[in-house]
Each structure stands twice: as structure tokens, then as C-alpha cells.
Amino acid sequence: MGDGRLSVVVTRRLPEAVESRLSELFDVRLRDTDAPMTRDELAAAVADADVLVPTITDRIDGPLLARAGPRLKLIAHYGAGVDNVDVATARQRGILVSNTPGVTVDDTADMTMALLLAVTRRIPEGLSVMQQGAWEGWAPNAYLGGRIAGRRLGILGMGRIGQAVARRARAFGMAVHYHNRTPLRAPIEEALEATYHDSFDHMLSRIDVLSINCPHTPSTFHLLNARRIALLKPSAVVVNTSRGEVIDENALARALEQGAIAGAGLDVFEHGTEVNPRLREQPNVVLLPHMGSATREGRLEMGEKVLLNIKTFADGHRPPDQVVPGVL
Ligand SMILES: O=CC(=O)O
């Protein structure tokens, strides 16, 4: 902290505008390659920075935090989900954690609808026929998908993203059902015309599309397991734009192979970039490389949130987006 400014280490390349604003305000060490930091690089970063700006590809766990130096006081995460950060251990060590909620809501909800439509209306198949120049013209029986208007959407996790998905689904003429730890307040539920199920199992057997919109926590890990997948209708489709770990990916692959469900649209995977090859082989599965929040606007706004969290902390206050352990 040579000139009295906070020393901030950023673990990944961020949008240029965010990097230059960070550099104006703080004593920043930026990443010069787009590859994630190695474990040793992360350990060196936590050893001597005041503030670490990691992102969702960094594992900030207990052993790494044990190597944190006495100066580390804030982890200003560039990302909404903080399942990669051991928030409880950070707190025990007196390190605050903040994230970037809210600004990824609309983009992630849009991608949920995009995946839903891609799977139910066979968009990748149409795209590939056109790219190959193999289109033989319109035919009454060609490329038939299923209509989504009038279908029931079940949303797992009715936070801000779940509610944004609900609004979109209503506009598409779907009936919205949801499961959450607690029901929405009555006026919000009424505005969304959403039906609450206090039992996830109960909801599963009644819906046509399941959208996963809850965070990954110890209690949501493999929430969609083999037993629950078996409760879905054979015509059901599963969409996940949240975190891969919420689904038992092997169980999902098996259900798709056996035709026990009709399809899946996945933007996130249980083992990150190690995508289960069985999923890749399924024709009724649309896979995307975790791009739900990937808009230019969203990435800049995530940066604004990181800046505000650090700046507020530097001014002696709690960061506005502080993450409290156990509360997501
Ligand atoms: O997945 C993206 C995020 O958590 O920001």
C-alpha cells in the first residue's frame, strides 16, 4: 500500500473499461493472460494483497484462505454465484466477501428461455441442416417440435433470476409453478401468477419444463437426482443456467439415453469444462459454454459492482453486496 491506496489483485482479464477504472482508483495488479491463475499464483495473490478480485473459475477454499496474509480484508468477487468461495472460512479469518448480484438477472433469464426454445423447437438441428446446405424445403412433418404456450414451467429457486424467468415464461403463455425454501410474498406471487409447491417432488410430476435457477450450496447439491428425475414426465425438458452441481449429471444422461425425459438445455456442468461425453452424444440435448450472463453490458455492470464494493470498503463501510455465510 505504498501510496496509501489499497493493493488489489485481479485474477482474470476483465473488460478493459473495468480494468482501467480499477487502475485509476487502486494500486492494481492485473492479469496479463486470459488463463485462470494457478493455485500457486492465487496463493501468492492472497498472501500480499488487501483485496482479491477473483471470479467464478477460481477456487477460493479453506486451504487457500489459510495462506492469506494479514492484509487481506476483502474478496470482491466478480460473479453472482459464490459457490467457489468458502465464505464461512473467510468470515472466520475476518475477510469480507462481496459479489455482483442483480446485474446478471435479465441476461441469465434470457438464456434460460433461449435454451428452452432451442430444445423444444429443435433450433440446433435446423441450424445444422442450413449450415450443411441440406435443406429440402418446407414439409408438414419436418422439424416438428413441441409448443411451449400452455405448458407448465416449474422453476426451482425463485430468487431474482427465477422471477425474471417466470415473467418471460408468462409472456410466452406458459403456466408458472415454483419450488423455493419459502414462498414469495403474496403480491409478488400474484403478479407472476405463479403456483407455489412446498414439495419439489410434488412439483416435478406436474410440469413440462424444469428450469434450475437456485444457487449451488451444500443443500442444493444433486437436488435433481435419479429418484427425482424419475418423477418427471417422459415428455419433460430440463433447463439449467445456474450451476451444474445441482443436477446429478450421470443420472440425467441416463434418463436422456433411456428416453425417460425428452430433452435438456444446459449452460453449466457438474465438472466445469469436463462435459460428460454422454450428454454430448444426445441429439435432444443443447449444450452451451456457460454463457448465461455473457453480455457486454452485464460484464461492465459486474465490474461496476466490484468497483463499488471495493470503494465502499475503502471508505470504511461494509460493501453493499456483502455475502453473509449461509444466506444467498
Ligand atoms: O455464472 C455466473 C455468475 O455467477 O456470475
- The CATH C-level name of the largest domain is Alpha Beta
Strand fraction: 5-15%
The total count of strands amounts to 12
Radius of gyration from CA coordinates? 21 Å
> What is the residue-mean pLDDT, rounded to a whole number?
97
Listed once per kind, the bound small molecules are: glyoxylic acid
Number of H- or I-type helical stretches = 13
Q: Which structural class do you get from the secondary structure elements?
A: alpha/beta
* The CATH homologous superfamily of the largest domain: NAD(P)-binding Rossmann-like Domain
CATH 2nd-level architecture of the largest domain? 3-Layer(aba) Sandwich
Spans of at least 5 consecutive residues whose pLDDT stays below 50 are none
Q: Oligomer, anyone?
A: single chain
In the residues, how many domains can be counted? 2
Distance between the termini: 32 Å
The shape, in one word, is: globular
In spatial order, strands of the major sheet run 8-7-6-9-10-11-12
Tell me the helix content: 25-40%
What does the model show?
The structure is a single chain. The chain has helices at residues 16-25, 39-48, 62-65, 87-92, 105-120, 123-131, 160-171, 186-192, 200-204, 226-229, 249-257, 277-280, 296-314; strands spanning 7-10, 27-29, 51-53, 74-76, 96-98, 152-156, 175-179, 194-196, 209-212, 237-240, 263-266, 285-287. The chain has 328 residues and is α/β, with parallel strands linked by helices. Helix 1 packs parallel to helix 13 and helix 5 packs across helix 7 (160-171). The protein is 35% helix and 13% strand. The two termini are 32 Å apart. It folds into 2 domains: 7-103 and 296-314, Rossmann fold; 105-287, Rossmann fold (3-Layer(aba) Sandwich), CATH 3.40.50.720. The strands form 2 sheets. The chain has a 7-stranded parallel beta sheet with strand order 8-7-6-9-10-11-12. Strands 2-1-3-4-5 form a 5-stranded parallel beta sheet, sandwiched between helices. The radius of gyration is 21 Å and the shape is globular. It binds glyoxylic acid. Glyoxylic acid is lined by residues 56, 79-81, 104, 293.
